[in-house]
């Protein structure tokens, strides 16, 4: 399914006041149980994969954990002008509210980025007459929590609208300027093999309509290979 921004994948104590969940919505729509194969942050939109059986969900979960035969492609709008392309190799500490393993565990994490377009907004900020922004394609090579958001912050190009890893005053100024408040991160495509049949699958979620606020002439992402 395509998840809109602001929708939780499933119920969580981290957002106890929320009443709408992608899992329950899909169960109601299909009239049968479904199991999430992975998750997207609440603010992220895009491709969200569910399984129709617990066994298939387990196999998919293993594929997402290992990254084998699976490639995730995201689109984001970030602050500043990143390099044309690069590989971010920066270990990430297990987040305090993620209790799957020891909270102090340091996990290796790698992501690829490719800059698609640089532009400036006529928005004065911190003494500058304009605000530099860029649209980027992102590919996480590992599956750490908030990985892309934390990696883009690490290279000083945080994703716009990121309330946790970005700059609040800038996020508010951008939201007022474009008339849209959201995390500007979208899961664009998922390339993988079916865990049972081995069939190659390409699952896509088109950019949301609000992305037109950023790009007058959309261009396809120029992606890197994992070996780059």
Draw up the topology in text.
Blueprint: E1 2-3, H1 22-30, E2 35-36, E3 45-47, E4 50-51, H2 54-66, E5 70-79, E6 85-89, E7 92-93, E8 106-107, E9 110-121, E10 131-140, H3 147-154, H4 168-178, E11 185-193, E12 200-204
Parallel strand pairs: 3-11
Antiparallel strand pairs: 1-3, 2-4, 5-10, 5-11, 6-9, 7-8, 9-10, 11-12
Quick overview:
The chain is of the alpha+beta class and 228 residues long.
Give an account of the 3D structure.
The chain has 228 residues and is α+β, with helices and mostly antiparallel strands. 18% of the residues lie in helices and 28% in strands. It has one domain (2-207): Pseudouridine synthase (2-Layer Sandwich). It has 4 helices and 12 strands. The strands form 3 sheets. Strands 1, 3, 5, 6, 9, 10, 11 and 12 form an 8-stranded mixed β-sheet that branches. The protein has a two-stranded antiparallel sheet with strand order 2-4. The chain has a two-stranded antiparallel sheet with strand order 7-8. 27% of the residues are buried.
What characteristics describe this protein?
single chain, alpha+beta, Pseudouridine synthase, 4 helices, 18% helix, globular, disordered C terminus
């Amino acid at each position: 399914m395509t998840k809109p921004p602001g929708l939780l994948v499933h119920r969580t104590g981290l957002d106890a006041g929320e009443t709408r969940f992608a899992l329950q919505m899909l169960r109601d729509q299909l009239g049968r149980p479904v199991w999430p194969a992975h998750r997207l942050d609440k603010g992220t939109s895009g491709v969200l994969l569910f399984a129709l059986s617990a066994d298939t969900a387990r196999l998919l979960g293993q594929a997402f954990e290992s990254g084998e035969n699976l490639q995730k492609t995201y689109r984001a709008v970030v602050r500043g002008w990143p390099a044309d392309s690069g590989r971010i190799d920066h270990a990430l500490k297990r987040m305090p509210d993620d209790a799957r393993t020891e909270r102090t565990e340091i996990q290796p994490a790698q992501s690829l980025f490719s800059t698609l377009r640089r532009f400036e907004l006529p928005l004065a900020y911190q003494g500058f007459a304009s605000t530099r922004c860029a649209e980027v394609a992102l590919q996480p090579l590992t599956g750490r929590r908030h990985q892309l958001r934390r990696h883009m912050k690490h290279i000083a190009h945080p994703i716009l609208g990121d309330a946790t890893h970005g700059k609040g005053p800038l996020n508010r100024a951008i939201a007022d300027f474009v008339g849209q408040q959201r995390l500007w991160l979208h899961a664009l495509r998922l390339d993988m093999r079916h865990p049972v049949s081995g069939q190659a699958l390409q699952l896509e979620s088109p950019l949301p309509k609000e992305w037109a606020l950023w790009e007058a002439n959309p261009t396809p992402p120029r992606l890197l290979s994992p070996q780059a």
